[in-house]
Amino acid sequence: MENELHNLDLIDSLSERHVQLRKIAEKLWNDSSDIYLSNSEWFIIARTYKKQPTISEISKNVDISRQATHKFIKQLEAKGIVEINNVKNNKKHKCVRLTRLGEDCYEKNEALKATIEEKVSDQIGADNVRALKDMLKMNWGL
Question: What is the DSSP code string of 14-62?
C-alpha cells in the first residue's frame, strides 16, 4: 500500500487513506459486535448522535440519495439503532433519534476509532497526527 501512495496526488492520497481507515474501522467493529453496520449507516448514526435531525436533513448531510437514506434509516430502525418520530407541528417531516443501543454503538465505535488513531500516532508521531488533524480542519478556501 505504501509504495502505491507515492505516485498519487493529494486528492487520491486522501481518498486511499480514507478507504483504508474505513475498512480497518469496519473490521474492528464487525469483529467485536453482532450488529453489522455499513459505512453509510455509520454516516447516518454520526449525524444523528445527540441530535434529532429530519430525514431530509440527514440526506443532505451524508451525500446519499434521499431514497437510499430512507432505506438505510429503515435498516437502522429494524436493527433497533434508531427510532423515527413525527416532527411537532409538521405531518410531512419525520425526525430520527438514536436509541440507547444506537448511542452505545456510536460510543463503542468512537473508542475503536481512537485505537486506530493511537496506532497511527505510534507510527507517525503524535505531533504529526495533531498537525494533520489541524490541517484538515482549516479553511481550504474551496
Answer: HHHHHHHHHHHHHHHHHHH-SS---HHHHHHHHHHTT---BHHHHHHHH
* Residues in contact with 112: Cβ distance below 8 Å, sequence separation at least 6, in sequence order: 25, 28, 29, 32
Query: What SS3 class is residue 79?
Result: coil
Global pTM value:
0.85
The angle formed by the CA atoms of residues 73, 79 and 82, to the nearest 5 degrees, is 50
- At residue 71 the predicted structure's pLDDT band, cuts being 50, 70 and 90, is very high
What is the phi/psi pair of residue 112, to 5°?
A: -65, -40
The average confidence (pLDDT) of the chain is: 91
Q: Which three cell numbers stand for residue 19?
A: 478507504
